[in-house]
Here is the input.
Amino acid sequence: MFTKVALLVLRKDVAIEVKSFEMFSTTLFFAVSCVLVFAFALVRDGVVVADAAAGILWIAIAFAGTLALGRTFERERYAETLRALLLAPAPRAAIYVGKLLGIVLLLAVGEAILVPLVALLFSAALFARPLLLGGLLLAGTVGFGAVGTLFAAMLVRSRTRDVMLPILLYPITVPVIIAGVRGTAALLEAAPDEPTALMWIGLLTAFDVVFVTLALWTFEPLMTE
Amino acid sequence: MTAMLTRILTVVATVLLAAPAWALQQPPPPKGEFVPIEQLPPGDQLPSAPLLVAAYAFVWLAVMVYLWTIWRRLNKVEAEMHALEHRRAGSGR
Amino acid sequence: MKRVFLPVLAVAAAMFAFAPIYIANAPFEASMGLVSKIFYFHVPSWFAMFAAIFISGISSAIYLFKGRAWADRLGVAGAEVAVLFGSMGLVTGPLWGRKSWGVWWPWDARVTIALLLELTFIAYLLVRKFGGPGSEKLAAALSIFGMFNVPFLYMSVNIWRTIHPPTTVIPTLPSGMPGPFWLSVAAFLTLCALLLTLRSGLEHQRAALDALYLEDE
Here is the structure.
């Protein structure tokens, strides 16, 4: 029942998105603009500041992710489907998981395009250890999405939701950013530092487990009036 | 018109008054390699006392200001309560 | 709590009055001299902030899952007091650091963690004020998340920090210093408890006022 509901919510979101690609294209383009802005800020004489590629990648993911989160729930609010979802005889936590999967999927597809772009622009050897990089990105995206989905869901009724989401989200997800950037930077060194990257993946996984659990616990009492 | 002029003059005056204090701040550390050292040469040493006094003063001030804000808010709430009870007593239960 | 309030207040006042004398008589720390005495206020305010954060987080959890109103009041009080003591730590830290390390902000692990927690709980207060309907519960969730985030912040910022060149020589406590230090810790924690009581008392009065208004309608 739980997984069925979660997958239904995911399918609904994917179906809506596939029709128009609105969120995907705009979010992706925003991420690309971010990368360009940072490139102009940090590249000097054609050479980028050390470790900047890793930082730029994760900042672009964080910013684009915040936008995508806001807009996922904005769509629900606009169509007033959020109340319908909550009234449905389905475990609330399953709705949360469905939304989380949707966000992670959206960001994952975006990252699939963003990573080669960053590798290209900054001559960064991001594909030296693709599995480890993939692990880092997945764990980081899930962690970021877990906290973000919860906060975005709660903020949907607030007037100040656009500015409140980053204010709430960024301090909590600092460990994700640190782990992601340092892990990616470790992989970008001349001799990729695998133990370090694995350590950061471990930290991210622990973060994911703790915060997804917390979010599942608190989603129900939070969404009740 | 004069209200606007007053505001502009206030801002200008504030900036002019703050400028000397800003200029007197210590210069930023030199750029380049950051080399940690154990003891600063006597010429570079900052006087400690102002920093210490500033630290203690801030702690005291922060506590006092916070207590004051609680006091103010409490007074407001109690004033409202009195007004409310007054009104109820006045209009009859 | 009301009956013990005034005596505890008197004790706290006495502790704070005595502390400077005790601190002044403590031995100087070898490499930093006078300015290291900031340490007696800096570290205890960190203790108090931690205490406030955990109280806020735990009572927020109680509020969220059990719906007890007193828990919400304590949660708000804890957040405000945490922001207060955090600001003390964030001001005294750089003042100490300017002298001993030569820079205002050394990106030291502990000060950075303090800053992040401070931001989290400022966000708590902002959400309560501007968050719209249901913001008490969202703020409560934020407080819980902030509390659980502490070990992750500690681990990640610590490891992140050790990659950069070290800028500090963290002093170990020589003899003669523990006395004033633990007195300061006790004084700050007592102050923390007092402020929590006052602040949640204010919330209690506000709730009573709201109840009166509701009765009226």
Chain C touches chain B at residues 20, 31, 33-35, 37-38, 41-42, 45, 80, 84, 87-88, 91-92, 95-96, 98-99, 101-103, 165-167, 169, 191, 195, 198-199, 201-202, 205-206, 208-209, 212-213, 216 (CB under 8 Å).
